Amino acid sequence: MGHKTQPEMYTDPSPDINLRKNLSNIAASPLYPTLPLIKIQLTRTVSERGSSSSMGKTKTLSVDRRPSECVSSYSVHKISSIDWIPSPVVALATSFDGLRVAAARHDGSLEIWLVSPGSIGWHCQLTIHGNPNGRVTSLIWCPGGPHGSRLFSSHLDGSVTKWDLFHLNQETVLESVGVSIWKMAVTFPKGDKINDERKGDQMGNGFHDFVEHESSESDEDSDSPGPHEGSVGENPRVAIGLDNGHVGIYDISDTDEFIYVKSLPRVKGRVLSVAWSTDANYIYSGSSDGLIRCWNAALGNEIYRITVGLGGLGSGHELCIWSLLSLRSGTLVSADSSGSVQFWDSQHGTLLQTHSLHKGHVNALAAAPSHDRVFSAGSDGQVILYKLCSSQSASSDDNKPLSTMKRWMYVHCVRAHTHDIRALTVALPISHEDIKAERRIKRARREEKPIHFSYHKWAHLGVPMLISAGDDTKLFAYPVKEFTKFYPHDICPAPQRTPIQLVLSSVFNQSKMLLVQSSQCIDIHLLQLKNVRTPGDLAKTKILCRVKSKASQKIICSTISDSGALFAYSDQEKPRLYELESGEVGKITCDVRRRTLPQRLPFAHSMIFTHDSSCLIVAGHDRMIYVVDVERSELMHTFTPRRELNEESSPTEPPITRLFSSSDGQWLAAVNCFGDIYVFNLETRRNQWFISRLDGASVTAGGFSPENSNVLIVTTSSNQVYVFDVEAKQLGEWSRHTSTLPRRYQEFPGEVIGLSFSPSPTSSSVVVYSSKAMCLIDFGLSAEADESHNLINQDLKANIIQNFNTKKRTKHNRKNFNVVPLENPVLFLAYTSKNSLFMVDKPWLQVVKSLEAPPVHRHIFGT
Amino acid sequence: MISGGQNYVSSAPVFSNDAKRLLVCTGSTVSVFSTATGSRVSSLEGHSGPVTALVVVPDSSTLLSFCWTASVDGTIRHWDFSVPECVKIIDLHFPVFSMVVPSLLSPREENDAKTRPDVFAYVSVQNPNAEANCLSPRCGQIRKCNLTNFHAVSSLILKETERPESLTISPSGKFLGIKDKRKLHIWKVPKVDSDSAVSKKITLHHSKTITVLALHPMERIVAAGDVTGRILIWRGFGAQKFMHSGGLVNGRSTNDEEDKPGVRENDDAESCSTWHWHPSGVRLLSFSSDGAYLYSGGKEGVLVLWQLDTGKKNFLPRIGSPLLYFVDSPDPSLSSISCADNQIHILKMPSMEIIRSISGIKPCLSSQDICEGLCSRAAFDYTSGLVAVQTENYGIQFYSLFANRGLYEVQVCERNHQPVDEVTVVVSLVELSVDGSMMGTVEVKLPEDGVGGLVCLKFWDLDDNKRFSVSTLIYEPHRDAHISAIAFNPTRRMAVSLSYGGDFKIWVCKEEIKQKGQMLQNSGWMCHAVGSYKNKAMRAAAFSADGSVLAVAADNVITLWDPNNNVLVAVVGETLMPITSLGFAGKSYYLVSVCHGSKPQLSVWSMSRLAAFWSYKIQIEAVSFTIDFSYFAVLALLPESNEYAFKGDGIILLFNVTNPTPMASWSVTKAKGGGLAFLKGYPSEQLQSLLAYINGDREYVIFHPHSKEAFELSRIRQDDHVLEETGQFGYTSIYGELPKFDPKRNLTSSISSAASERPWETIFSGSSHMLPPLTKLCSEFLESLLEKKTPTVE
Questions:
Q1: Largest CB tally within 10 Å, which of A4, B104, B659, B711?
Q2: Are A394 and B248 an interchain contact pair (Cβ–Cβ within 8 Å)?
Q3: Does the beta carbon of A834 lie under 8 angstroms from any beta carbon of chain B?
Q4: How many CB pairs under 8 A join A and B?
Q5: pLDDT of A823 above 90
Q6: Residue B133: what pLDDT?
């Protein structure tokens, strides 16, 4: 269906005249000299709530390499006092294709992390704010369902919920029976290669009877995806470890119901960990009394039990088996509270090896896809790699057959986390693809995406990565194969960043205002930026008002109008609108008045005011976009995001998570979390354009250019920047002339989290920032790619010319795409005037101090 | 001539096959020690250069006792060390720094015994030609040589290194390796070795300089320690290179390069894991003989035992000195560690306790430069032939010069010594009285940041066990001034201490004061008198032989005092430089003074005339006086320019005070920091005393100064009781001695039991288990009832 819309973008070769004219004007303007150097002045801004130590230091962050030439200096105002308390990660799970990692946080929210094709950085694709009281204990992905895979979580209150990654909500699929669930385990996907060496050797008849019995129920599932041969139609089966000592076994139907199958006999203590054998014939359960039991999954009888602590490490009754891992080779790995990781022969239940290298509880285990490496992590913050080594005795002669013995060897430990590690998982994200010609073809020939949103079509066999997360709220990625060689990658430098919005000139005396959205309240700050050219003159923030959400509901999104007089937020119930009232002249009183919104408005994933503050645009969770007249409090129009422009139907697209509106009030761009862009004309109230996801990457930031409302600039998670002309429905001139962005931008540290346009009407530059760095992009200049990338995809003659030109330009265009690394995790960054930037950041150490969990005590040698 | 004081830890010792002997490289000889007693049994003499490598020929019968030695003199010798005699000499013409003989270690097949293959040794030699080739000074070479049938060193050079590296061989004899800066090279020894057989080599890389390596006895595992204290363990090295030759391809595909965690640069190993415990460089690494454990040690002086599978550690702490070598013995209950303080400790193995120590003379303090000017030389005991040297751990070692072994140590200050710690306390002075019954020590606590310095003077007395114990402790005897010298009165229990602060104190033992009354148990030293001369710094003092005159050098004049009354008697002459050493030449009226500095001087003063008698301008390192005669000996340092004329850098001159012409002279080496002493000769020999010279490395010789040629002193005069080998082996070591089986005992007991007329009165007395068996009692009892027939005379 998208075959018609999509080629439009590229088949129309005629350039957009407006955009070209506009851009060329800017480039030729004498007011805009080329700025080969940027000198950035950092001015720390003291807020009233901030620490007094942050006196107005003026730091010069010099990025210039040629100091003799003209220096344009940006002054940067900094605020470090904004509250930012991220929540610990409690569970991780990788989808079957290995591309996506789900991370559940302590506050009930869920994040999906993935690597966009063509990039190396991880990207938080979507966040679902779940029930803040239901503490997640484990996460599982199941095959099946309308999108190929489903995500379930078990909770401490005993319920099991399904996370709908399409509608961004959470549904309870198994009601609580009042007993906590500690662990949930699903049978191995059949698509995986399973060594069925043991099949039938012990179990025999019972199992086969069982299979026949089950197949009658699951006949209707024959359309479920999966390349498996023998056992098509078998539902994934889940074992649930309960606090009361039961292990419940459920089938997950295609309608996401949990069908009770049976319950294993109750044992003393709590079942803390469960694992399936790879052939799904056995269940291993580890409990709080230090026993591992092996159950026949079909008959429900106990086959053997292992007393873990018998070797003298911790007495049995208080030893907790926190994690179990069953390997294809038939080895069972257990992790317990005494800090030891033990390898067992699962056929006989005998101990193979013990490693007691952790100095605390071992919380999590993970195996490499090849199942010859096992990682363990625990409350000491270490991740330890064990490898299956075949040790051949050298004493035997070369001619004789070697007596090979396989053993698990400790290889290496890495300590990246400052706090306890709670969860580990191994993912196979899309590997970094070098920017080759092959990739360009992909972009040019991009067709309509299938509705299910996985990126596996772009992924060739990737590098397995280990992801660890825990109480320090960060996620770290380690290469599984080169674990010893590289330091782990911090894929989440600013977890659960506090959303911040800046109003440059409010109706209140043109003062600058700041909207800070915490998890349960909205703060409006008055920002007082004094003239930073005179050092010592401090700028301040002053809290104007704080609106707490009703019944401590979690706030999903918020917005403030450009006038500063209106702001709105949405919790999980409905959106709410407030008005700030100015009391005396020249002073702003903290009067907040609730304004009514039309009934029936669903809660929103994103909200925005139009530039004249007359309309509030709400992207509801029912996947419609509502335009509300604020003054009259009535619904003006409802947009339905659609791919086909002139098709009227119920909403089928995923919910909108980002909205951008143009300054002339004509355009509205809505972006869903998978990167599709829908453009609406607010004046004609029609769908204008649909831009399918670019390169398969999500949109990370975007905005309409202030001086030309037809120009939409978006950045994607694969670190690309696109300029669109929405009126002409085509790629903007800059994007069409820019084949590849410079390498230094493609390797931009961290995911782009925002962009800000220069308020100066003559400037066409945009500042793009991630939590680690910022980058200035001047769209008046062409992106000058690295030499190695210029030689791509042009035919030879054009190539030579192009190359020649580029080289010429290179000489005076060094400054474009200059990446400036930033010291502390950045929460927000925006232009305040032509030459000054405003930045909200916070040193990570301060964030760590505010975390609830204490950091891991590290003994320093010699103390 | 007796020589001794050799360095026991220049290279690793080796156990004999029965683990009863420990062979130790001691300079150019090999000393054979008994592991049961720790005493020297014999020595292998013949090499002319330091012995660098020792290989005992292993033998299952443990009867044969052959060994190979290699030396810097370029020869390899084959010895029977039980006899001991040299069996064979091979001259390589290259200085050998390390040698291993792989074929000795690999088990020989029985049927091959007749056609015994040639024995090949791998040697690490220094290439003398490399000196000329300045561009690439790689003078170390690894070569092969045929020991059975030697013609010349194989021209095949396995590897060239910058300096000769020591070779490490796996206990199975299959692999040998060297470290080369940041790399390890490992060769697989060819099965059939010949001069030209090329062995395959692999190289393992690391990012730090490797200090030591060890090869696993069974598996293909190599461990290496680096300068930062990390231990790296490569498992499965050489899977591709070594194993493919046998037609056996390892199951792992060769192009799976990523599947080697921790292995750098595509090295041929399966995995590499790292352990880090040692805070500084690893000095010793050794696998246990079963391959389950790894021993490691370093500068901090802790032997660490790692379980190879799990990485768990066990420690042997408080060894007190950097560790150098760990050697396993064929007896699983014995092993040895060599420490940098010249001690070899024999460990009882599973428990890792030190059961015996072979203690050489302790080396000079490594921290000499820190406490420059604070450390005195060794003190000699004239009568018993002991030398007292300071040790690193704030103690004093008493070393018997005649027996060439350490007798005991006393701890001067009770402090734990960790080799890695900073030096805060120094024992700066040790002085023994002439009869060896008194000792004075001075310890200095170094000030930290200029505060907290403390000087302590201690007097020690011999106790009943002939060991010194503290009798008196005096804090800051000269306020905060450092003590420059102590001198004992040869006739009385009197001593003098001098300070740089310009005063001296005469100390007497309290015991002597109250001599008239009963002997006091608590004897102590107290200050008898204080004197000073023009507030000049005092550096040397001496009592006359009869103890009636005290000569104190006050800067550059000599003052003579009556020590009993503390009266200044006379002032003698003036030297150009401050006098640093003084002494009366025997019982003569001559005083000898020594000055150092820019104008060194050796002067003899006549006491009768109170004037200089004669003097030399000569740099004196040490001076020693006979007790009875008017001889004295000086150790003079030769100026640089004169060095070519003599072999060494020092010269010992023997003078008669009356004659400025030296009576005899000997050229010595390593004279800097050396010492000189006359020792009492034994009555069985000539009455003349012996002269002992100890050099800067604390090696010593004892010789007769008056004999024309330094004739051999017989070594049998080791009056110290030689420990008998009381070790128990085999059955007795487990169950103890069996009671002696005496076949005659039954006979005698039966005879004795028949004697009593009325046995029932005594026969049942005593505890039940002592009673003779019932059968015996019964017969005796019945017999006693019988009427004895008197023997008739025939």
A1: B104
A2: no
A3: no
A4: 84
A5: no
A6: 56
Q: What is the DSSP letter of B288?
A: -
Q: Do the bridges between strand A677-681 and strand A686-691 make them parallel or antiparallel, or are there none, so unpaired?
A: antiparallel
Tokens of B649: 């850098």
Q: What's the Cα-to-Cα distance from B367 to each of A3, A125, A490, B301, B456, rounded to whole Å?
A: 84, 63, 47, 16, 20
Collapse the DSSP code of B36 into the 3-class scheme (helix H, G, I; strand E, B; otherwise coil) and give the result: coil
* pTM strictly above 0.80: no
| Chain A touched by B220 (CB under 8 Å) | yes
φ/ψ (deg, to 5) at A778:
-105, 115
Contact B501, B479 (CB under 8 A): yes
Retrieve residue A231's tokens.
Answer: 């056992």
Q: Which residue has the higher pLDDT, B234 or A19?
A: B234
DSSP state string for A417-456: -SS-EEEEEEE-PPPPPP--HHHHHHHHT--PPPSS---T
DSSP label at B451?
Answer: B
Q: Which of B17, B102, B91 is nearest to B60 (CA)?
A: B17
pLDDT for the residue numbered B738: 64
Nearest-neighbour CA in chain A from B76: distance (Å) = 29
Q: Tokens for A428, please give them.
A: 């196979």
Task: Quote the Cα angle for A498-A503-A508, to 5°.
Answer: 130
- Whether A389 and B235 lie within 8 Å, measured CB to CB: yes
Question: Do residues B613 and B604 lie in contact, with contact meaning Cβ atoms separated by under 8 Å?
Answer: yes
CA distance B473 to B451: 22
Distance CA B97, CA A619 (A): 82
Q: Is B261 on the interface with A (CB under 8 A)?
A: yes
CA distances from B598 to B502, B595, B616, B618, B619 (A): 22, 9, 14, 10, 9
Structure tokens of A181? Answer: 């669930």
A161 within 8 A of A196, measured Cβ to Cβ: no
Q: Enumerate residues 370 to 399 of chain A having a beta carbon within 8 A of any beta carbon in chain B.
A: 370, 372-373, 385, 387, 389-395, 397-399
pLDDT tens, residue by residue, A304-339: 988 887 555 545 557 889 999 999 888 999 998 888
DSSP string, B355-399: EEEEE-PPPPPTTTTTTTTT----EEETTTTEEEEE-TTSEEEEE
Q: In what order do the strands lie in the sheet containing B140-146?
A: B96-100, B120-126, B140-146, B157-161
Contact B355, B316 (CB under 8 A): no
* B721 burial via Cβ count (<10 Å: 0-12, 13-18, 19+): exposed
Separation of alpha carbons A635 and A614, rounded Å: 12
Helix pair angle (B745-753, B774-785), 10° resolution: 40
pLDDT band at A512, cuts 50/70/90? confident
HEC letters along B40-104: EEEEECCCCCCEEEEEECCCCCCCCCEEEEEECCCEEEEEECCCCEEEEEEECCCCEEEEECHHH
Instruction: Tell me how far apart the alpha carbons of residues A603 and A549 are, in angstroms, rounded to a whole number.
Output: 13
Question: In this complex, is the C-beta atom of A359 within 8 Å of any C-beta atom belonging to chain B?
Answer: no
Please list every residue in chain B whose beta carbon sits closer than 8 Å to the beta carbon of residue A466: none
Task: Indicate if the alpha-carbon torsion angle A602, A603, A606, A608 is positive or negative.
Answer: positive
To the nearest whole number, what is the mean pLDDT of chain B? 80
pLDDT digits (tens, 9 = 90+) for A537-589: 456 777 888 888 877 788 888 999 888 888 899 888 888 888 887 765 555 56
Give the helix ranges, DSSP H, for B150-217: none
Which pLDDT value is given to residue A315?
A: 54
B192 token code pair: 């059939």
CB contact burial A410-432 (16+ within 10 A = b; e otherwise): bbbbbebbbbbbbbbbbbbbbbb
Q: What percentage of residues in chain A have a pLDDT greater than 90?
A: 10
For testing the chain A interface, which of B175, B192, B245, B271 should be mutated: the one with the most A CBs within 10 Å?
Answer: B271
